[in-house]
């Protein structure tokens, strides 16, 4: 069984919270549980609509899916969310260009199934911190091609340009990962409002403390804000019980 705690924060600089999270430790449709983080983009209120609408669509689609395979369930749900966000953008000129990242996961029979679009992340933390997802961003592509080192990437002026998003294209390319969880592992899902403000090693240090999930999540939010809080912050923490 998985226990989870989720929290979002507007941060220190933004007027609107475009991050949206969902956690269900109980079964939803054919999935035994579901955890989602979405970080919206778009002017006015389009970004917060895109993230909320995407997560709500994923919940709805997962709830009525009859497939038994977690990857196929998540794939179909995210594709449906992409279609709906695209359609909504054609109906309202204030919504044109909106989109959202999404990272979603479900835990079944010792395996964490992870779906990712954009630059929100999922980590598995034990004695070390391991980023499972790979950012879909312009800067990450430069790092992969060897044109930029990891240290320079952290403060690159184009760091926030993402190369994939729900709502950006007629179809969305989703990455999937499968991770075997061990006893004592903590799973962190988060928006870039956290990871742009806190180094991975500091995240590891916070998550290794002898505190509750709730206290650890609140400490991550507090630290990100103390370091500048330049964006909205979303955090989902999970552990086996």
Quick overview:
33% of the residues lie in helices and 27% in strands.
What features would you describe in this structure?
This protein is α+β, with helices and mostly antiparallel strands. The protein has a single domain (2-240), classed as PPM-type phosphatase domain (Phosphatase 2c, domain 1). The chain is built from seven helices and eleven strands. It has helices at 46-64, 70-91, 138-144, 150-154, 192-195, 200-207, 213-226; strands at residues 2-9, 19-24, 34-41, 99-100, 102-108, 111-117, 121-125, 129-131, 175-180, 186-190, 233-240. The strands form two sheets. Strands 2, 3, 4, 5, 6 and 9 form a six-stranded antiparallel β-sheet that branches. Helix 1 packs across helix 2. The mean pLDDT is 94.
Task: Sum up the overall morphology in one term.
Answer: globular
- CATH first level: Alpha Beta
What class do helices, strands and sheet pairing give? alpha+beta
- Terminal-residue CA separation: 6 Å
CATH architectural name: 4-Layer Sandwich
Quantity of strands, as a count: 11
Strand content is 25-35%
Annotated CATH topology: Phosphatase 2c, domain 1
CATH level-four homologous superfamily name: PPM-type phosphatase domain
Low-confidence residue ranges: none
For the record, the count of structural domains works out to 1
Mean pLDDT: 94
Succession of helices and strands: EEEHHEEEEEHHEEHHHE
Q: How does the major sheet shape up? A: 6 strands, antiparallel
| Number of continuous helical runs | 7
The oligomeric state is single chain
DSSP helix fraction: 25-40%
State Rg. 17 Å
């Amino acid at each position: 069984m998985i226990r989870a705690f989720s929290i979002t924060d507007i941060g220190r600089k933004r007027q609107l919270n475009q991050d949206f999270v969902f956690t269900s430790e109980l079964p939803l449709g054919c999935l035994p549980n579901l955890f989602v983080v979405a970080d919206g983009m778009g002017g006015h209120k389009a970004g917060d609509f895109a993230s909320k609408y995407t997560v709500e669509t994923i919940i709805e689609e997962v709830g009525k899916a009859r497939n038994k395979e977690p990857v196929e369930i998540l794939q179909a749900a995210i594709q449906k969310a992409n279609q709906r966000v695209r359609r909504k953008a054609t109906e309202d000129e204030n919504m044109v260009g909106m989109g959202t990242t999404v990272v979603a996961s479900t835990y079944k029979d010792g395996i964490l199934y992870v779906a990712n679009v954009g630059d929100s992340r999922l980590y598995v933390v034990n004695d070390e911190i391991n980023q499972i997802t790979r950012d879909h961003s312009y800067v990450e592509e430069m790092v992969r091609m060897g044109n930029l080192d990891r240290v320079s990437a952290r403060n690159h002026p184009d760091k926030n340009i993402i190369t994939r998003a729900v709502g950006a294209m007629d179809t969305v390319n989703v990455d999937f990962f499968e991770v075997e969880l061990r006893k004592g592992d903590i799973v962190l899902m988060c928006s870039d409002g956290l990871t742009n403000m806190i180094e991975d090693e500091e995240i590891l240090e916070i998550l290794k403390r002898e505190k509750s999930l709730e206290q650890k999540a609140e400490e991550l939010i507090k630290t990100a804000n103390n370091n500048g809080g330049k964006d909205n912050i979303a955090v989902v923490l999970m552990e086996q019980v």
